[in-house]
Amino acid sequence: MYNIKLLNKISKIGLDVFDENYSYNEEMVNEDAILVRSASLHEYDFGENLKAIARAGAGVNNIPIDKCSEKGIVVFNTPGANANAVKELVLCALFLSSRKIIESIRWVDTLKDDQNVAKTAEKGKSNFVGPEIEGKTLGVIGLGAIGVNVANAAIKLGMKVKGYDPYIGVNAAWALSKHAKHAISLDEIYQECDYITIHIPSNSETKGFLNQDAFAQMKDGVKILNFARGDLVNNEDLLVNVANGKVGKYISDFAAPELIGQENIIILPHLGASTPESEDNCAKMAVKEVIEYLENGNIINSVNFPDVNQARISKTRLCIINKNVPNILANISKLFADHNLNIENMVNRSRGEYAYTIIDTNDEVRQDIIERIESAKGIVSVRSIVKE
Ligand SMILES: NC(=O)C1=CN([C@@H]2O[C@H](COP(=O)(O)OP(=O)(O)OC[C@H]3O[C@@H](n4cnc5c(N)ncnc54)[C@H](O)[C@@H]3O)[C@@H](O)[C@H]2O)C=CC1
Ligand SMILES: O=C(O)C(=O)COP(=O)(O)O
């Protein structure tokens, strides 16, 4: 029986993927795995039994990844599972940033008691003129699952698109429309784009990514969309640039006290992934990742350990998380040989400071042997999964 702790609301369609061997709820203790969306785990007390955290979504800045790695907790996310939902909201924001839709709706609402409302509305419409997006240039910073979707959709809407991502992945590069232009520097994005949308993760390197230096280079009246994370933008610098008209409109999915009620700033309550489709997709993917890891030790879509996905070919599988240092495998192999244990299959992959090893055997691996592996230098954790 596996215990799963739920933080945030995880879609039932996803939870239904668990079979009778799983018990899940929000009060779970001694959990084997956590399913989470945006709840912060930075102050969370990770129990000894915790093996995996699956983020039903993309951004993992709510999870202390280094601490998890040190403890041998594998962190997963669900790449691309909510990308379409975010893309659709970004497209909406693109229109909101261009045509004065929100402002005009607010104004019409004030005309409730006006008996000549139709005439008044017609008369007032000239205050809400806004440009078309067709033919304008959109700069997309970050060409991952969301950025590529946004870029391709904007091209279909007749925009010119410039994309910037020095670390673009192979799949994203294949998926990106051939009509998107490759910007080789951020300067090019800042100086040439009428609209800029940012789709990169929040981490120690990207905090305050859009700051005074960036704003200073941008076109007057540029429209900026932030559906990635609030802290990618330096709000102090932003407010100065909205006030002086350099930034014509800022639309963000992330609230902050200083941004509320400001002219030319529109804030949504983190709605990017809040569609039934995306909530189901993310939950299903996250649950499957957890099941595969708990039952077979296979790692798919981890953000802190290498992906390793091996079919089970034997009764016993040892899953070893270790520091990426010499001699680990040699010591384990020797221990196996000393105890006359035969290795059917062995896979070792590393990622940064850590590595993951799967050993399949048909022999019984006694607890004292597991403990000897566990106590060796550089070993973070050892798990034996036996399938009858
Ligand atoms: N508003 C919402 O509800 C949602 C927000 N997000 C946010 O959007 C972010 C992006 O999501 P996905 O596209 O699914 O992730 P992704 O991992 O597919 O794409 C991120 C892209 O950013 C690029 N990148 C990283 N650092 C960069 C830099 N310094 N300059 C340029 N490019 C850089 C990477 O190479 C990658 O291609 C997430 O990390 C999350 O914070 C994601 C989903 C929903
Ligand atoms: O996937 C992401 O990174 C998101 O920001 C979505 O967050 P949510 O799952 O809606 O709390």
From TrEMBL:
Catalytic activity: (2R)-3-phosphoglycerate + NAD(+) = 3-phosphooxypyruvate + NADH + H(+); (R)-2-hydroxyglutarate + NAD(+) = 2-oxoglutarate + NADH + H(+)
Enzyme category, top tier: oxidoreductase
Gene3D superfamilies given in the database record: 3.30.70.260, NAD(P)-binding Rossmann-like Domain (3.40.50.720)
Domain named ACT: residues: 317-387
SUPFAM superfamilies reported in the protein's UniProt record: ACT-like, Formate/glycerate dehydrogenase catalytic domain-like, NAD(P)-binding Rossmann-fold domains
Protein's UniProt keywords contain NAD: yes
Pathway(s): Amino-acid biosynthesis; L-serine biosynthesis; L-serine from 3-phospho-D-glycerate: step 1/3
Pfam families attached to this UniProt entry: 2-Hacid_dh, 2-Hacid_dh_C, ACT
GO molecular function terms listed in the Swiss-Prot or TrEMBL record: NAD binding; phosphoglycerate dehydrogenase activity
Highest taxon listed in the record's lineage: Bacteria
EC number(s) from the headed UniProt entry: 1.1.1.399, 1.1.1.95
Keyword tags: NAD, Oxidoreductase
Family: Belongs to the D-isomer specific 2-hydroxyacid dehydrogenase family.
Role played: Catalyzes the reversible oxidation of 3-phospho-D-glycerate to 3-phosphonooxypyruvate, the first step of the phosphorylated L-serine biosynthesis pathway. Also catalyzes the reversible oxidation of 2-hydroxyglutarate to 2-oxoglutarate.
The name this protein goes by in its record: D-3-phosphoglycerate dehydrogenase
